[in-house]
Amino acid sequence: MTPTMFKVWAPDATTVEVEVAEVRHPMWAGPAGWWYAEVAGADHGTDYSFRVDGGGPYPDPMTRRQPGGVFGPSRVYDHDRFTWSDHDWRGRVLRGAVIYELHVGTFTAAGTFTEAAEMLDHLVDLGVDFVELLPVPPVPGKHNWGYDGVDLWAVTENYGGPDGLKMLVDACHQAGIGVILDVVYNHLGPSGNFLHPFGPYFNSALGSFWGEAVNLDGPGSDEVRRYLIGNALQWLRDFHIDGLRLDAVHALHDKRAVHLLEELAVEVDLLASSLGRPLTLIAESDLNDPRLVTPREAGGYGLDAVWDDDVHHALHAALTGERHGYYCDFGPLAVLAKTLTSAYLHDGTFSTFRGRSHGRPAAHVPGYRFVCALQNHDQIGNRATGDRLSAESLRVGAGLLLTSPFTPMLFMGEEWGTRTPFLFFTDHEDPELASTEADRRRREFVGHGYDDWADKAPDPQNESTFLRSKLDWCELKLDGHRALLNWYRDLIALRKALPELTDPRLDQIKVDYDEDDRWLVMHRGSLRVAANLGPAVVRLQLPRARILLASDEDIVLDEDLVLPGHSLAILRTI
Fold this sequence. Notes:
Elements: E1 4-9, E2 16-20, E3 23-26, E4 28-29, E5 34-39, E6 47-52, E7 55-58, E8 74-75, E9 99-102, H1 104-107, H2 113-117, H3 120-126, E10 130-133, H4 161-174, E11 178-183, E12 202-208, E13 211-214, H5 221-238, E14 243-246, H6 260-275, E15 280-283, E16 305-307, H7 309-320, H8 333-342, E17 349-351, E18 356-358, E19 370-373, H9 377-381, H10 391-401, E20 407-411, H11 431-445, H12 463-467, H13 479-497, E21 509-514, E22 519-524, E23 527-532, E24 538-540, E25 545-550, E26 556-557, E27 561-563, E28 567-573
Helix pairs in contact: 5-6, 7-8, 7-10, 10-13
């Protein structure tokens, strides 16, 4: 039987052992802080752990499987044992695409990869091109958003483990849908993180809201960067993932001449060339900095796209009238018009919420490089009660989003106006974390313009908080929900049918509006997207046109376009 080679990076250790079946095997020191040991019989399915300078046992920092959770041993996992059926898959490009974000644990009743795969017909019928999965590495307990993950190379058993993820990706590809995976490289979760004994993975002096910052530019950071980039390549290569959404890149502390994001983009481009299919990198960032998506040859980082919260804020505030917290600069239709034509409101302008100027101009960037949403896990889940937009707001908002020049992203259940909330939930096993999580959640709102929400948020540790967040698919049997679903389907189909709606040139868009009467008209070539965001009927004089799609059967086009309150029509001028 061929021995299995175990290796681990522990540059400051004096002794390292790998423990298999309660037997400790000494490891020998190799170059650059790496330790090695060959163990006979430790093949696929064998449990093991490491001991560093007598401490431990610890899971492997690069564990591929954690069947006993974050506090258990690692298990040898052979990627080549899975049989793929997506050999003809050639990938998806972001241009013209629609993304659907989902949390596996609450997408279905069982909350597994297998059951998620059973719902793919719904997504195909809806017309989406990508599903974006919230993070899937192991987390403490049975349920979590995924951002408390600690074993970054593994897949949580709660959803079905590594084979379950591969099965879902394979099924998505068979259905013609690409898969984007949300990954977190700016921090690790607060419980079950055993990287400290192995090496300088963190810089405690540069902590973020979520915990210690990852060491990207200090001593020993060469290997830390390889750890993260290798992890990204694993998802794309071994799990056939089509793209990565990089969580909160503004929290990556990196002062090197070549930023981690640029280095990652180079490596992913090389892998895409090798695999013969497109691979996509999308950054979540609140910097409003187009350099993230500027090509490397022009001095940028060369990522493919970035989340654009300004578009979300402009739509949300205009539709709901909310002005608290970071919505304070949003709401006027002038702001919505600017974001629809410039991508950012804050492109060097003063941000009241931040108390300083913010951002830089991005109107020269193709619109598809901005991923925009009416709702997403953050914007719903970070509300105290996880409440969603009303069907009335969704009809108009979806009409504007899906006819915009940006890459639209929907959040699970949005397409039928689900009334189930998406709450913040955890299942920490550490007694101290478990007992203080509710208070920590409460303190998130105090002093940030959301004080009145502090006492409304349910306890994240209460299992009911998690269970209440599961989608209720039975809602689709109700007329109102089915009607909204049909509206989303029609909008997506129209977007794919009309080239004007995927034209990424922001300078080709014009927006007219009336602040008092609350109407807005977006010009996309010969198309007009006319929206009434107020409660009163409005009459608009437009060039001779015909209606292609309308949100309301009471919309009338005679000499004028008559829009009832909270309605939208898409027209083509004649």
